[in-house]
Amino acid sequence: MGKFIKGFLFGSVSTLGAIAGAVYTFHKVVVEPVEEIENRAEENRRRAERKRHAAQNG
Q1: What is d(CA 8, CA 15) in angstroms, rounded to the nearest whole number?
Q2: Torsion angle, CA of 28/33/35/41, rounded to 10 degrees?
Q3: How far are the Cα atoms of 10, 11, 52 from residue 3, in angstroms, in the given order?
Q4: How far apart are CA 27 and CA 49, in angstroms?
Q5: CA-to-CA distance for 42 and 35, rounded, in angstroms?
Q6: Which of 25, 27, 7 is nearest to 15 (CA)?
Q7: For labeling, which of 27, 34, 38, 57 is most exposed (least CB within 10 Å)?
Q8: pLDDT tens track for 12-27
Q9: DSSP string of 27-51?
Q10: What confidence tens digit (pLDDT) does each residue in 25-35 have?
Q11: What is the rounded (10 degree) CA torsion for 18, 19, 22, 23?
């Protein structure tokens, strides 16, 4: 029975580790680049707005 419990615990920990690694990798590969693109677009909008106001004020 002791071998079964050790094996079950090891399998559970390994599975949870694999799931955590997959979630972390997904976040790094998919989520962060999308957020970076959105931040860059927002910054470009702000810059364009400042330039537009500066051009109108002469």
Answers
A1: 10
A2: 170
A3: 10, 12, 72
A4: 31
A5: 10
A6: 7
A7: 57
A8: 999 999 999 999 999 9
A9: IIIIIHHHHHHHHHHHHHHHHHHHH
A10: 999 999 999 99
A11: -150
Total-model pTM: 0.64
**CA gap 17, 22 in Å, rounded:** 9
As a whole number of angstroms, the distance between CA 36 and CA 44 comes to 12
d(CA 56, CA 50): 10
Residue type, position 31, single letter? V
Q: Which residue has the tokens 């979630």?
A: 23
Instruction: Find where tokens 């004020």 sit.
Output: 57
